[in-house]
Automatic annotation (TrEMBL):
Name listed for the protein in its UniProt record: coproporphyrinogen oxidase
Keyword Protease: no
Keywords assigned by UniProt, alphabetized: Heme biosynthesis, Oxidoreductase, Porphyrin biosynthesis
TM spans (from-to): none
A Gene Ontology BP annotation from the UniProt entry: protoporphyrinogen IX biosynthetic process
Annotated source species: SAR86 cluster bacterium BACL1 MAG-120920-bin57
Single GO MF descriptor: coproporphyrinogen oxidase activity
UniProt enzyme class: oxidoreductase
Complex and partners: Homodimer.
């Protein structure tokens, strides 16, 4: 049985800090290095801390790239599935990186990624159990079959690199998770999502998370570069702000990461950094918004397995 000694924890934190650094660097390149960065290093009274980075520019209207490494005496119930047999009464240490990007151009999709590891810790800092989770998903405002195929092919390629069984399972879990039951809508076109996974050893699992993060940012960077100069109208922008509301609704009502952050007394500013900078809930939809939404919802309901 492994021990959670400073060397092991430092190595795990170093891996996630590298993930944060790589993604931030690629987002800066997307913005032609012309962006405002706000870096906030924070500590948590109950144990641990992190580094939250906010990026704003002409291409990426707002992005948050957050690293956290926190510990506690009791694992919040929101960090595990309801069917789990994992003991939530043990001490824990959780390390992760979360990313959300809201581009300015409505033809550039919003994206999300997170990777994390939970360590269930007993007496004398003995690791009693561990598991990883994460994934990425894409939320477009205007249909693009090319973007969807690019996104899902990249997801399948990285999953197949580690196990031929991963992609079908992770893609299905993503579709089921990023769903708004009160709207009866998918949040976007999906991607991959998994939780409570033990892929061989901790080292192999960290390799998986690292490769997932690289696939996410490289694929997203290519999609943004293909659309960042697309011309758009005020109607397009109004529709984007309206559909961003779905993102807010999901993150505040259903997102397990948001609930975990609140339940673990996390930094509120970092938890809510995923919300878009501008959003609108019109009481009465314009004919333009109604027409665009009908087209988008039909696109979101596609079976993307047919496109890869």
């Amino acid at each position: 049985m492994n021990r959670l000694n400073p060397d092991n924890l430092n190595a795990i934190e170093f891996c996630f800090e590298g993930i944060q650094k790589n993604i931030l660097g690629k987002l800066k390149v997307v913005n032609n290095s012309q962006c405002n960065l706000v870096v906030d290093k924070w500590k948590r009274e109950q144990g641990g801390g992190g580094k939250s980075i906010s990026l704003e520019g002409k291409i990426i209207e707002k992005a948050a790239v957050n690293f956290s490494s926190i510990s506690g005496k009791k694992l919040p119930s929101s960090s595990i599935a309801s069917s789990s047999e994992i003991n939530t009464s043990s001490g824990f240490h959780a390390v992760g990186v979360s990313v959300i990007s809201h581009p300015h151009n409505p033809f550039c999709p919003t994206s999300h990624m997170n990777v994390r590891i939970f360590l269930e810790v007993g007496k004398n800092k003995v690791i009693k159990n561990w598991w990883i989770g994460g994934g990425f998903d894409l939320t477009p405002y205007h249909p693009s079959t090319i973007d969807a195929s690019t996104w899902h092919n990249a997801a399948k390629d990285i999953c197949d690199k580690f196990s031929k069984t991963f992609h079908k399972k992770f893609a299905s879990q993503c579709d089921n998770y990023f769903y708004l039951p009160h709207r009866k809508e998918k949040r976007g076109i999906g991607g991959i999502f998994f939780d409570q996974l033990q892929h061989k050893s901790i080292e192999h699992s960290l390799d998986l998370l690292e490769e997932i993060s690289k696939t996410y940012i490289d694929t997203y960077q290519a999609i943004i570069n293909n659309h960042k100069k697309d011309k758009f109208s005020q109607d397009d922008r109004d529709f984007q702000l309206y559909r961003r509301g779905r993102y807010v609704e999901f993150n505040l009502l259903f997102d397990r990461g948001t609930k975990f952050g609140i339940e673990s007394n996390g930094r509120v500013e970092s938890i809510l950094a995923s919300l878009p900078p501008s959003v609108n809930w019109p009481f009465k939809l314009s004919p333009s918004i109604k027409a665009q939404e009908k087209k988008l919802l039909r696109f979101l309901n596609n079976n993307w397995d047919q496109h890869i």
